[in-house]
């Protein structure tokens, strides 16, 4: 039997097909637009009249509106993907979030800013789930991990580019660049074909895209809930420790200023390395479950390092801690792949699209509980308490996951 490395070399041409390339570039633009607010939070809010402590509270509020939009958009686009096809999500989502992102560059008041981030969130919800579903259904079972690894690792680098653009250009122009890149990507999508598994299924009487079906049956719901909970620590760390890095830096006594943009860049740079590592390890170990357990534990350790090593640290060391959070949180590719592999073709897009967006949609729960605990425990204590809760839930869920490496996906979920 060929080793994973030999299989990768033999199947390189298969992995680097149009669907994988377009899904990777699509997720690149998606992440650029998704994370851009975290990068330009302070200059953009300051420009429309927000100042002082409101930069934190209103910043979290804008982020929450975006995440709620993603929560709702995940449900809508997931159902569309299973009823009409994976490509319908790809075209619809990119059009919606590109237009909304361009409009973000024209805002002059807080209410409009929140509304447009909500609309952008609706559009951003469809990209990753549709891309992973399409790639998982097109590639051979033995190469799926490599395909989704490429999609995720290329995609998260969009945050690095976003930081460079935001540092070089005005925050309004940074939004226009993101929206423009999305519209350009629509041209490439014309060359991508629909999933053969879906094409075969659409001509049958099998019920497709029934979102409520994931809640029918204890075992199916357990699979669904576990798929969500294993990913929450990644976004909890991102939304609190990374997005508020300037505030944490001052509280921990970091010896120089730390910008949110630099923290985001280091975090997502780490995510690129983490996604490549977790994807490769899942192929070498022939296990998704072991990799998820390892990386959840590593992310918990990276959270502790952030608080301990950050006290009195130099800005470089503190940013390095943000990078470690990214490396340890780099099981995002495996997380979404696991969700797609857990369910049949008639529910796969619904699950793969809603699961990551339910994770993102739980960000308001993380940030609001953090805000509630902050007056009682302080900035650091509140963050540590909220993180500990979600890490506990993630570890329990990871232990309960079924192994999905190499499973055949051409099956349906019974009613």
UniProtKB/TrEMBL annotation:
Domain Major facilitator superfamily (MFS) profile: 19-415
Subcellular localization: Membrane
GO CC annotation: plasma membrane
Entry annotated with the keyword Membrane: yes
Alphabetic keyword roster: Membrane, Transmembrane, Transmembrane helix
Major location category of this protein: membrane
InterPro entries on file: MFS, MFS_dom, MFS_trans_sf
Designated name of the protein: Major facilitator superfamily MFS_1
Origin species: Anaeromyxobacter dehalogenans (strain ATCC BAA-258 / DSM 21875 / 2CP-1)
């Amino acid at each position: 039997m060929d080793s994973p490395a030999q299989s990768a070399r033999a199947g390189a041409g298969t992995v680097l097909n149009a669907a994988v390339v377009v899904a990777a570039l699509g997720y690149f633009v998606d992440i650029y637009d998704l994370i851009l607010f975290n990068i330009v939070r302070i200059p953009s809010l300051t420009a429309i009249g927000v100042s002082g402590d409101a930069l934190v509270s209103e910043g979290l509020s804008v982020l929450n509106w975006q995440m709620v939009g993603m929560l709702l958009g995940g449900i809508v686009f997931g159902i569309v993907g299973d009823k009409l096809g994976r490509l319908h999500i790809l075209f619809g989502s990119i059009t919606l979030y590109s237009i909304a992102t361009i409009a973000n560059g024209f805002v002059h008041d807080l209410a409009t800013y929140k509304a447009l981030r909500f609309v952008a969130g609706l559009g951003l919800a469809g990209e990753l789930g549709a891309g992973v579903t399409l790639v998982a259904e097109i590639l051979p079972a033995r190469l799926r991990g490599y395909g989704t690894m490429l999609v995720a690792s290329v995609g998260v680098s969009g945050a690095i580019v976003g930081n460079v653009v935001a540092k070089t250009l005005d925050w309004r122009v940074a939004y226009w660049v993101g929206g423009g890149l999305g519209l350009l990507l629509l041209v490439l999508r014309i060359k991508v074909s629909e999933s053969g598994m879906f094409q075969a299924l659409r001509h049958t009487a099998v019920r497709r895209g029934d979102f409520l079906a994931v809640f029918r049956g204890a075992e199916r719901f357990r699979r669904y809930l576990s798929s969500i909970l294993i990913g929450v620590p990644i976004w909890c760390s991102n939304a609190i420790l990374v997005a508020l890095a300037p505030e944490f830096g001052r509280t921990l006594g970091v010896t120089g200023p730390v910008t949110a943009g630099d923290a985001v860049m280091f975090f997502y740079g780490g995510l690129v390395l983490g996604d490549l590592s977790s994807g490769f390890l899942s192929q070498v170990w022939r296990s998704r479950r072991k990799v998820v357990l390892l990386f959840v534990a590593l992310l918990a350790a990276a959270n502790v390092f952030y608080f301990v090593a950050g006290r009195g640290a130099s800005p470089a060391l503190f940013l390095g801690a943000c990078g470690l959070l990214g490396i340890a949180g780099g099981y995002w590719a495996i997380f979404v792949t696991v969700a797609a592999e857990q369910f049949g073709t008639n529910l796969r897009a619904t699950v793969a699209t809603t699961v990551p967006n339910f994770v993102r949609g739980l960000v308001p729960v993380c940030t609001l509980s953090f805000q509630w605990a902050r007056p009682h425990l302080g900035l650091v204590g509140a963050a540590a308490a909220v993180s500990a809760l979600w890490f506990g839930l993630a570890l329990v869920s990871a232990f309960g996951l079924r192994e999905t490496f190499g499973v055949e996906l051409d099956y349906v979920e019974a009613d």
